[in-house]
Every structure is written in C-alpha cells, then in structure tokens.
From TrEMBL, chain A:
Record carries keyword DNA repair: no
Keyword set includes Ribosomal protein: no
Designated name of the protein: Molybdopterin-dependent oxidoreductase
One Pfam family cited in the UniProt record for this chain: Ald_Xan_dh_C
Residues covered by the Aldehyde oxidase/xanthine dehydrogenase a/b hammerhead domain: 23-138
Keyword set, alphabetical order: Molybdenum, Oxidoreductase
UniProtKB/TrEMBL annotation, chain B:
Occurrences of domain FAD-binding PCMH-type (ranges): 1-171
PROSITE patterns: FAD_PCMH
Alphabetical UniProt keywords: FAD, Flavoprotein, Oxidoreductase
Lineage: Bacteria, Thermotogati, Deinococcota, Deinococci, Deinococcales
Any Pfam family hit: FAD_binding_5
Endpoints of the signal sequence: none
Name this protein carries in UniProt: Xanthine dehydrogenase family protein subunit M
Organism expressing this protein natively: Deinococcus rhizophilus
Amino acid sequence: MTDRTDKYMGQALKRKEDPRFITGAGQYTDDFVLHGMLHAAMVRSPYAHARITGIDKSSVEDMPGVHAVLTGEDVAAAGTGPIPVGWLLPELKVPPHHAVAQGEVNHVGDIVAVVVADTRAQAEDAAAMLAVDYEALPSVALGSAALEDGAPQVHDDVPGNVAFRWEIGDEAALNEAFGRAHKTVKVNLRNHRLVPNAIEPRASLAQFSPASGEYLLYTTSQNPHIHRLILAAFVLNIPEHKLRVISPDVGGGFGSKIFQYQEEVIVLLAARLLGKPVKWAARRSESFVSDMQGRDHESEAELAVDAEGRMLGLRVNTVANLGAYLTLFAPAVPTYLYGTLLNGVYKFPAVHAKVTGVVTNTVPVDAYRGAGRPEATYLVERVVDVMAHELGMDPAEFRRINFIQPDEFPYQTPVALVYDSGNYEPALDMALDMMKYPDLRAEQERMKGTGKILGIGVISYVEACGLAPSALVGQLGAQAGQWESSLVRVHPTGKVELYTGSHSHGQGHETAFPQIAADELQIPIEDIDLIHGDTGRMPYGWGTYGSRSAAVGGSALKVALQKITAKAKKIAAHLLEASEEDVEHAEGVFRVKGAPGQQKTFFDVALMAHLAHNLPEGLEPGLEATAFYDPKNFVYPFGTHIAVVEIDTDTGHVKLRNYGCVDDCGPLINPLIVEGQVHGGIAQGAGQALWEDAAYDDEGNFLAGTFMEYAVPRADDLPSFETGHTVTPSPHNPLGVKGIGESGTIASSAAVANAVMDALWHECRIPHLDMPYTSEKVWRAIRDARGAGLGQAADD
Amino acid sequence: MYPANFDYHRASSVQEALAMMAENPDLKVIAGGHSLLPAMRLRLAQPPALLDVFGLEELRGIRREGDVFVVGAMTTHAQVLRSELPLFPEVAHEVGDPMVRNRGTIGGSLAHADPSADYPAAALALGVEFVIRGPGGERTVPADEMFVGMFESAVGLGELLTHIRIPASVRGSAYEKFKHPASHYAIAGVAVVRHADGEIRAAYTGAGERAERLPLLEERLNAGQPAGEGLVDAANLLGDRFASPEYRAHLVDVLAGRAAARV
C-alpha cells in the first residue's frame, strides 16, 4: 500500500456496463438463439397439495409443433437424480425434490409436466391443454399451523412437518439473566413472506452435443459454478467438465438466482433426449410461484433489562416456514444467518434462540436479500423499541447505552459470531444529526390533534456478510467452500483481463473490480476489463450472494494483482539493471529510487514478459496470476437508519416521508455504486414494511400472483433518501472492505416498522402490529385503541 | 406470446367496424388494450378474434359544441389530461402511468366498466351522455344508465361507444381517490361536481360492483350540510384482503368529505 496512490478506489465512477444496459444492448439468457432451438413450457400445479392420478400425453401430442411431453416418470427413467440441499443440519429431514413431480405435487406452481415444441406459443398452448387428473390432498400454508396436532402432512418422510429443530446460545445463562431482570417485554412477531421479483425473470437454454458428450447451459445464475457442480455431480451424473454454464447479463437476483432450480435440469435433459437445444423463459406469473421466496417467520421474542435499562438477555423462539421443499441454502438462512445475528449491536450477557424449520404446501423459501439478517434485525430492533417505549426512554438513547464499545472488538457474542470491528455510536450520532432528530420529536408533539401522526423509527444494525471462512461454514453444515478465486491475465500490450468467480447481476463489478486493479497496477482503467459468469473461462468460483463479492472476490483479485506487481517489479528491476529493492512502483511506472528518468512502464514490462528476450534468470515468461482467497472471518457492516412516517388517521394511510441512514461498510470502492445499493435496499425493505405480502390462504392457494395484487414500491411511494457513511475498515481482508449489497434491506424494514409503531405508540399506546402496515390494518388499530380509551387527543 | 391464439382485424371506419361486428359476433373490440391485453396474457380472457378500433381518427379528439364538449371515444388519457374538460383532466392524472395514459382511451375505459376505474365516478357526477352506435343507428345513453354491473356497460353486442358528451362548464369539481397499493386502481374514489345551475352531483367508484351516484351526499350538500357519514351501505360493497367492505364504506365517507370541501 505504501508505494501506490489511490486514483480510482473511492471514486464515484459511472458504471462501465451501463451504456449497454440503457441502450438495450445487454445480452440476457433469453436473447441467445441456437440453431434448431425448441421451446419448453411448464405445466404447473393449480393445487397446493395433490396426488397426480393421470397425465394423458395424447391430449396434446398431436397439437401443432409439439415434440415431446415429459413427466416425472420420464425424468426418473432418464436417471436424473433429485436436486440436493447444499447446507445440512443435524437430523435434517430432506424430502426429495424432483425436477418434475413424481406422483405428488406440494405447492401451487410445482412442475407436473413439460411440453417441448417448435415455438414458445405452441409450447404454451399445449401446456395449457394437457389433461392432468389430480386427487386433492389436505394442505397447510402457515408454519405454526403445520406444527399443530393433526395438521396435514406435507411429506411422508418429514414427520410432523418438522425438517429440523435448532438452537443457539446458553439457555441456562439466559434464564439466570431473566431471573435478575428489572423489566421484561414479550412480543409476538410475524416476518411475512416476500416474492423476490428480480426484473429479469429466470430463463435457461441448454444444448447437448452427442459427438463430445458436452452440455452447454445458458442460465440466469448468481453462481454458475455452483450450478455446474450440482447439475453435473448430483443430478445428471456427468463429469463437470462436460458441462459449461454461462450466466450472461442477468437482470437482478436478490438471492433468487442462487439456487438450483427444476427448470435448469429440465432443459438439459430435454436437450439430450430430443437432440436439439431447448429454451425456457419464465413468464412473470411463473416467477411468482416458482422463484424461491423469502422470510416467513413467526417468532416470540422476550427482552430483559436491569434497573438502569441495560440489556440482560434476549429469548427467541421462531418457527421458520421453509415451503414445500428444502432448497440450496434453505436450512442455513433461518439458523446460521439468523440466530447468530440476534445479538444485534448490543452487549447482551445472554441470548438464546430456538428455531423450528417447518415444511408447508407453499413455494420453497430460501435466501432473499439479507437472508436471515433482516429477520434478526427486525426482531431485535422491534423488541428493543417496545422496551424503550415501556421504559419511557428515548429509543436512540436506549440503544446508545447498550452498544458494544469500540475498544471491545473483536467482540465475541453469546451466539457464536466474533464481530471483526465496529464503532456504533458515531454512526448513530451522525444519523440523528442528519435527520435533525430533536426537531422531529418536537414536530411529533406539534402534530397531535391534526389528523396526522408522525412516527420516527430509529434502528441500529450489524450484519454478517462476506461469506465466509470455508472451514467454519463446513463445520456448520455447508456442502460448499466459500473462498473466491481470481485470475489476472496481462496481455503483451499491457491490456488486462480480470476473471472472477463473483458474478455481477446489478452490482457493478465491471466497474468496481477494474477500479481495484487500476490502482494496484497503476494503469488507466480503460485498459482493464472484467470477465465473469462463464465456467468455461474462470478458474472456479462460488459466486455472488451474502454481500461477498467485494470482501471475498475483491480480496482474491487484490492478492492476484499483488502477484502480478511482484513479478512485474522483478522484470522491471532486471530491465533497469537495478536491484529489486531499489525499484519502486509509483506514479504509474517502475523506477529506480533517486534516479529520475530510469523507469519502465507497465507496457514495457508486459511486453518483455511475453517476448521473454530478456528476463531475470529462472523467471517464467508471461504475466498472469491466479489467487484463491479464503476469508478469515465474516465482515460486519453496521449503521443506523432513521425512517419518518406520517399517518393519516382518517384512512390509516402510511406515507414514508423521510429516510436517512449512515452505513459503515469500510472503505468505499465506488461511492456511486454503494449509493445505488443503499437506495435499492432501502426501497426493498420499505416495500416489506408497507406493501409487499406474498399471502397464501390457509390451504396454500397463493393470493398475490401478479403485480395487481403484489405491491412493490414505486418511485412515487418513496422520499429522497439521505445517506452518509462512517468508515471502519475490516482488519482481516486486504482491502479492508465490508459489504453493502444487503444492508439497506436488512435495516429498512425494521426502521420503517419502528416508525409506524412509534407513531401508533405515541398516539394510542399500541405496542406492536405486524408488517405490512396496510391502511386498513392501521385504521382499525387506531379506531379500536381509541374505542378502548387509549387514544390521546382524539382529533375527530 | 402468452395469450391463446386469436385472429386480429383492424377497422378503417366506424361504419366498417359495425359491419364487421354484425358479420362476426365473436369479435371483441380492442381500443388501447390496457385492460384486455393483461387479461389475455394471463389467459383470463381468450377472445377468438379482436377488432382494433384504436386507429379510428373519427373517434379521436375533443371538440366543443355549444355548452358541451364532444369527446371521441379513442381520445387517450394523455389527451384528456391536457384538455380543458371539466374534472376529467384531474381524474386522468390518476389513471395508470404515462405509458398507460399514452395508449389507454377514455372510451375504452368507460365501455369496459371496470368497477375500480376512475372515470365512471366523474362521468356520473358530471352527468355526461354516451353516444353509442349500433346496427340500428345511434342512441344516447345518460350516465346514470351506463354502468350496469361489474365489467358491464350499456354498450351492447354489436355496438360501439363513439363519443362522450360532457358539460362544458361547471362551477366546481373534485375527485378524491384512495389507491390499491399494488394495482393503483381505486379502492374507493369520489367525484363531486357543482354544476352551472348550482346543483351538486356526486358519485363513487371502486368500492362496489359498479360506480353509482351518492344520493345521500348530494342531498346533504345541496342542503348546505356537511358530507357526514354513512353515505353507502357496506353490505353492498366489495371486499378483498386489502380493503373490507366496512373499510371501503368508511373511505367513501372520508373521500366525500374531502372532495366536497374542494367544490
């Protein structure tokens, strides 16, 4: 670090990839056309739970263009294995997840059969006509309902619908802490279910070459190597080098494109069976019932404090609804990505959590932006606010006196994690200043009796991202490593290609990664390109999720770049006839210290590395380096978010009026990209708090299957966000960076929820309502509270 | 791509459109397509054949005839928004987004009689007249007879809504809407108009199976009383998971009070 200057790191560069996206020149999976390509359409179950008693292929086989109808029997006959789970817990019950249902469907949208035809329209028409007989079975949608005695059984091999029981923390210590409590509060919370809604629906295109036995799969993936590994080794039973997975431009994922899906198996299999390329692209209404969904917890949380308001302990009991099948990371999300974060930013002597993972007749639930950490933050920050209200303490001050202090890092929490670094109070103070917090409280008082009520929600969060030390996650049940790789290839002209196992589907890697490289190599950023998303070109990689790209992928890149500069320096010293110690890499050149003019450019060095006419004795030609970087710990971004809402008491309508936040993700590689991540994250979290709801009825019928029913936030629903940063580097990675991709979502549901409840507490002493705060829910709560005499200053 | 197969026809005149409809009763008229096409994409509607009247210039535009504006049925929401019509520009602003407003038409929306659409409340409160042409010639239907039921208007089989006659001047008007959070259609909407002769007319949309006048509100406002409560009976209203009938009835009261305060 000493002999280079940061020219690009920290600059708010416009994204290199944006010109192609905003001119419609991006190349997405559905844009690829292969010769002779056929189209697949899925026949999906209209039932939440049913036995398939008959499929009459002849009902559509004669329809125009139809090549084949594939059923579960055909898939089994082809030797295709079930889709495995990538994270195992002790005594985990895993129901088989077949590419096409074999005899039984378990959620609305489950795949019953596949029709392959010459055109998509023909495939869709035939799929709509396929005659399938069902025998409806009893079904259940709510996690807690699935645990009741006599509840419908989703799978025979998951008794009582319990996939796992898991706990963390010292229960005896927690009980002891509660024994000396001055005050306790208990809150029942539902963190309701969400649909990810990436802007590009999932798609896959597969080709099989009988000559070589090789498969090619274009697919919408956040981690093409994981797809290759699972598909080759577990599902198709082929050598993995016989499958090339390309994940080209991808229009967002939010986690939903991490997982191994049924459709990817189906197109690969169909391509082999039919001898022609086969494409499938989801309709939006398919995305609603087939993309893995998020959240869906029912929890009881109990917080204890002493007489000074110091937190003593947190007790949590959560039912996590996993949906009909266990998908890739599903067991990890409500356990190691949730229970371990229940300590929050506070000095808890004891925390104990029990989680019951439950299967139901709903779309599977897996990682969705934040994955477990928004659930933890919402629970902790909501119950902390309820306690602050009960104590009559200002919510910000209640948090402040309980913060872990900066000199206590690394900080061992009672729930396994060791926080790497943090300094929580400056972020809180900066956010309070930014939002003029005392003025807001004064305004809140002034507005009483006007028919509008103001609510101010303050939350302080910490999250664990940058997944993760491989040995650690291995101990916890991961069936994967979590390191990342990078290959840096310098061409003879000094132009550079960076290869990463991280995947960009909106994160701006094509800009941010070259920023890291341009500073390390001290060359213009225009000379550097990032290549990603193709197992045929990368060494290996575990992909992008858990806000890991910068901290892990960026660190791998940094290490590879250091190898390049070390070798380049050797070559430069040789060409300059100086000893390596006398050569410095500064201001874009390699030069002899104290000898002006004695210098070689990066181009000179790159050219000689390839010509190899004059290299140091024993040094290999070429200038290329690969690094495999395994992080030493998670990274722990933190911050304070403040939401301000205005509630119309006549209608219950909640308006998000102001939003401000201070995040600490360590040093910022590109502040513009960070800003974009924060904005998008806030919008998504606010969406959960106020509008979004993947609602099912009790029997598992999906009630929110289109954007006419599922309310995502729109620009005019949101205020301008005010953002700020403190910078506390991570001590354990070479860039010092943390993660920012999920922080907004992790923080904002809780902040907006606390704002709404702050308003309702001040107006009429309502301690808690569940999200989403729809207008009728809020209106009824106010009306009922006033009817019970709880209202202050009735204004009508 | 996603709809079921259908035939497509385009009419070059109203006369030709009527002739084609007389010949082929399966024809479903499509205007801007912003209600029909989404239903077709979900295969909720599977018309065997469409008759496209969107391009008919004779049905487009707004002209003044004495004390009424005559609005062509294929006039887009965007054109309505920029017009000098009473109340309708304010209402058009509540319809969809700019893309929807550049394509969707006032006639298409009104003939479709979506119970959550915005225009019907304005049409009832303004007392517009609908000019409908069919095989038997032209007839004029008053607003009070236009909205028959859910997705059912007075425009019959083989007929075409060609024009809407709107009073050119009113003393005051207002439309208040409470949006569905996902669709942005009206959970409830109330239009109040003070006509040139001083009479106040009011109507609501969104809350029930069809848009209707609000006689109790009109009575109170014409008597110089406040809007008050209990304007509609919740028992007659729609309910879903976003808004129960009771809540919709309450919203009609709230919105009526707000609209009345503005006229």
